[in-house]
Design goal:
344 residues, mainly beta, Jelly Rolls, five-stranded antiparallel β-sheet, five-stranded mixed β-sheet, elongated
Length: 344
Amino acid sequence: MRFSMPMPRNLLLCALTLLLATASTSSWAATRIYPGTIDKPADPDFIYNRTVFDCQPADSLTITVTTSITLSDSTIGRPSQIDGYPCAPWAEAGPELIYRLDVAAPLNLTGVLHENDFDLDLFLLNDCDSDSCLVGESVNFSADLDAGIYYLIVDTASGDSNNMPGTFSLDLTARVRGLPAAACAAAEANFITCANDTFTVPGTHDLFGQDNLVSEYDCGTAPKNAGERWYALTQGPGGIVSAVVSGVAENLDVSLWLFAGCGPEAECLQFVDHNTADQGETLTWTNEHASDNVTVYLAVDAVREPETAPGDDPVLMSYTLEVLCQGSVPTTKTSFGSFKSLYR
């Protein structure tokens, strides 16, 4: 009985040490994780057991801010070392395929898994230890990563999988963190002057041929793979802005982003997407600053990148944009530097 008291304390100390080590590792490895598209229901029978595994990967990939690749492979015949991860409430009893990622510099990495009628999941770790899991998603993920070594795992939920189709393709795309400066430059080229009336953007705007400068952000849902059209507008203190997209082309599913500033610390003020094609979207924002004019950056985006029709004619991706400014009207534009200081 004399040893009954120290044992719980030792166990508590070990658990605390592991918790702190895991938290410390995760903090430097990824500064921001964006939620995936579809959350699988939790497995009620799932019990997590830590696994230290052999992480000799099938492939080692160097990831830079220009990386855009598609990996095609299969989990069939692969070893099954890991039965679950602490970052997702699912059992992963089947085989897994491991990729080593050498991230050369801080960047944002997006992964999208295309399956062949099989239950595969994505996990991102920064060590050969299941406790180091940063991301656990069923379809896609997006994460701001520091430079370093990571392990991307395509794992199989079912243990009875050797005779089932485990083929997949995995899209990996890296970008600079935050919102690229090119977005703000493009927006300034389409500057909208706010007044107490409705301003209709002249002509019919189209998403075909536009650069895809933002795909996922912490306020958004699902990767938006089309290029965007960007607009800038300045509104005075207490003023309200309503942006209405209508007259969309057939089968076009548009969405709207609203950002404060560009760069790694850009703040997404709003994101609107009803996931419905052939209909428009409406976004409303209020400048809640008491005494400052504020410039914001509005983007019209879409789920899919433009395709081409027979004869190589672009599929129509047109829309009409109307902006209604109500309340205080700005007298001058706010410079990017002074505007950014409002969001520190």
